[in-house]
Amino acid sequence: MAARRTHLGVWPVWVVALSTAITLGACGAETQTPNQDSAVTVTVTTLTALAHQMAAGADDSNVTVGDAVLTTLDAASTATSGSTVDSNQSAYLVQLQGHFTALDASVPSGAKLPTGTYLIFVVDASSGLITEWGVGNRKADLLALGSVIALSL
């Protein structure tokens, strides 16, 4: 991916507010953890709302194609950037297709903001918080991670 931003940076106010609202009062069909033992707080409705907000924040509010997969933080990170985070914590990897600009990316003075046809973000399945995101032109292989959930955008 051309840009990657983690939870260590300053999040745009709308991401923090939306994540908090969704965590406190999500509604919709519940999704199970990979081992199907317990329900999580993140729903398909949650993922769809986050997808709309992230796309709008990346300069493409007309996005119509999006998918998600329930996996682990480590597998999501490996699939998107090749790095490992050594965590089996459940997470959703969400991938949107459109024309995105990483408006909140930190770039050197005078450098262009990263752009790409894919916006990818990771949502912690237990908290509903976005842990990382980025834009780029490389499509992640969601099928290799599990059952893909098509988002109605």
Describe the SSE topology.
Layout: E1 5-6, H1 13-25, E2 30-32, E3 39-43, H2 44-57, E4 65-72, H3 73-81, E5 90-101, E6 115-124, E7 130-136, E8 148-150
Antiparallel strand pairs: 1-7, 2-3, 4-5, 4-8, 5-6, 6-7
How would you describe what is shown here?
It is a single chain. By secondary structure, the chain is an alpha+beta fold. Helices cover 24% and strands 33% of the residues. It has helices at 13-25, 44-57, 73-81; strands at residues 5-6, 30-32, 39-43, 65-72, 90-101, 115-124, 130-136, 148-150. It starts with a strand and ends with a strand.
What's the number of domains? 1
Low-confidence stretches: 1-39
Percentage of residues in strands:
25-35%
What order do the strands of the largest sheet run in, or round the barrel if closed?
1-7-6-5-4-8
Structural class: alpha+beta
Strand segment count: 8
Taken in chain order, the helices and strands follow as EHEEHEHEEEE
Shape, please? globular
How much helicity do the residues have?
A: 10-25%
C-alpha end-to-end distance: 23 Å
Biggest sheet character: 6 strands, antiparallel
Note the total helix count.
3
Output the radius of gyration: 14 Å
Would you tell me the overall average pLDDT?
79
